[in-house]
Design a protein that fits this description.
Blueprint lengths: L14 H16 L3 H8 L3 E10 L5 E12 L5 E8 L4 H17 L5 E8 L7 H14 L9 E5 L5 H15 L23 H16 L8 E5 L3 H12 L3 E7 L2 E4 L6 H10 L11 E3 L1 H5 L5 E4 L18 E3 L8 H9 L3 E3 L1 H4 L2 H15 L5 H26 L3 H21 L12
Parallel strand pairs: 3-4, 3-5, 6-7, 6-10, 10-11, 11-12
Antiparallel strand pairs: 1-2, 2-4, 7-8, 8-9
Bound molecules: glutamic acid (GLU).
Length: 434
């Protein structure tokens, strides 16, 4: 008998290292006090749980689950839950810190957290996934809370998991508490516009970057790596605005058509084909690697971490990179991207649309009120545009990349808030009266 679960798939690069390197660079620009530096680089809490689950075949499998709270300085911690075979504690720790910086860049009152379970949701039945999600929620019963830590979807999770989580958390208290989680189905208090929110934010950030760099979005060539929720919505919405989506890809490989891919058809195909583009005949098959090397105006990595590393960055010909995924570029690739004159809109700005609409969902739940889709769109678009302009002017002021500028904006905000809270900075000391 074999007692071994399949070993988790580890990336050859550690996303935590990439996150820390960027944090360090920005902290130097800000001349951050050592004490504050040490507070901000550390996670508040890391929880690892084992979750024994009865599988449909009667066997019991034990899954490992994580929740890392990186910061609660700006408010309750916020961040998604990832179901993927590559999930591990270092990755979750990096992703949690990225949530802190993301919420700070777009100025919403949350700290950062992330959760995950090392599992392969594509190989599990709905009822196995439900049992796993409920067991995870029970383990995190004291961690989650609408004023403490608010989970949401991420890679491998969606409205179903959020509904089970909300139900399990509420059952333990005997009262429905829908503000404990965002990304719920609309009927359970989810927000209009949440499903497409991250992809929509990527679209708004892409148009902002193109306009600033005097590239006409009309007919601009776009290649998108990853055709999950973020990649497919970004593709659809950019196409609606006149861009030419020449390539898309998922785990099955890349699909290319110089004249533009019919994104509606590709989405329909994926939905009817167990979530994959495998066998999509409307475009020429290319490899994921070839997609990254295409001569395009915009490249949108919208899959997992480390799609762009020092190994392939020199073959990228895109003028603009917009990071739909979290951490798709390794820190070693940053300086090469800059040297090659490519504009990279960093993840913590480009993909913030999701958490912005999560914030709106939480606000609506607490008000017991529903906003219209157009209000959600208008407000989230305007936050992304304003944040883009803010990061852009910081990049001019410090003569740094948009990535470093975004970290400067975020770390400056969190560190100043921290100093007010711990009393080391006061209005009076600063020579001002309240
Ligand atoms: N998982 C998404 C992210 O990485 C959304 C998080 C949230 O809505 O809390 O930004």
């Amino acid at each position: 008998m074999s007692y071994k679960e399949p070993a988790p798939i580890l990336h050859d690069k550690d996303p935590l290292e990439s996150m820390m390197k960027r944090f360090h660079v920005a902290a130097e620009y800000l001349d951050l006090d050592e004490e504050v530096y040490n507070v901000l680089k550390s996670s508040v809490k890391k929880i690892i749980v084992s979750l024994p689950i009865s599988m449909d075949d009667g066997s019991i499998r034990v899954f490992e689950g994580y929740r890392v709270i990186h910061s609660n300085i700006l408010g309750p911690s916020k961040g998604g839950i990832r179901y993927d075979p590559s999930v591990n504690i270092n990755e979750v720790t990096a992703l949690a810190a990225w949530m802190t910086w993301k919420c700070a860049v777009v100025d919403i009152p949350y700290g950062g957290a992330k959760g995950g379970i090392c599992c392969d949701p594509k190989q599990m039945s709905l009822s196995e996934l439900e049992r796993l999600t409920r067991a995870y929620t029970q383990s995190m019963n004291d961690i989650f809370g609408p004023d403490k830590d608010i989970p949401a979807p991420d890679v491998g999770t969606g409205p179903d998991q959020m509904a089970w989580l909300m139900d399990e958390y509420s059952r333990a208290r005997g009262v429905t508490i829908n503000a404990v989680v965002t990304g719920k189905p609309i009927i359970l208090g989810g927000s209009a516009g949440r499903i497409e929110a991250t992809g929509r934010g990527v679209m708004v950030a892409t148009l902002a970057a193109l306009t600033k760099n005097k590239i006409n979005p009309f007919n601009a060539k776009v290649a998108i790596q990853g055709f999950g929720n973020v990649g497919s919505w970004a593709a659809l919405l950019l196409k609606e605005r006149g861009c030419n989506i020449v390539a898309i890809s998922d785990i099955s490989g890349g699909y290319y058509d110089e004249k533009g891919i019919d994104i509606g058809k590709a989405i329909q195909y994926r939905n009817e084909n167990k979530g994959t583009l495998e066998g999509f005949k409307e475009a020429t098959k290319i490899s994921n690697d070839e997609l990254l090397k295409l001569e395009v105006d915009v490249l949108i990595p919208a899959a997992l971490e480390n799609a762009i590393t020092e190994k392939n960055v020199n073959s990228i010909k895109a003028k603009v990179i917009v990071e739909g995924a979290n951490g798709p570029t390794s820190h070693e690739a940053d300086s090469i991207i800059e040297k090659n004159g490519i504009i990279a809109v960093p993840d913590i700005l480009a993909n913030a649309g999701g958490v912005i609409v999560s914030y709106f969902e939480w606000v609506q739940n607490r008000l017991g009120f529903k906003w219209t889709k157009s209000r959600v769109y208008r407000r989230s678009d305007s936050i992304i545009k304003q944040s883009f302009n803010n990061v852009y002017s910081i990049s001019k002021k410090y003569k740094v990349s948009l990535r470093t500028a975004a970290y400067i904006a975020a770390i400056d905000k969190v560190s100043r808030t921290y100093k007010y809270r711990d009393g080391s900075f006061t209005f009076q000391k600063n020579g001002q009266n309240t």
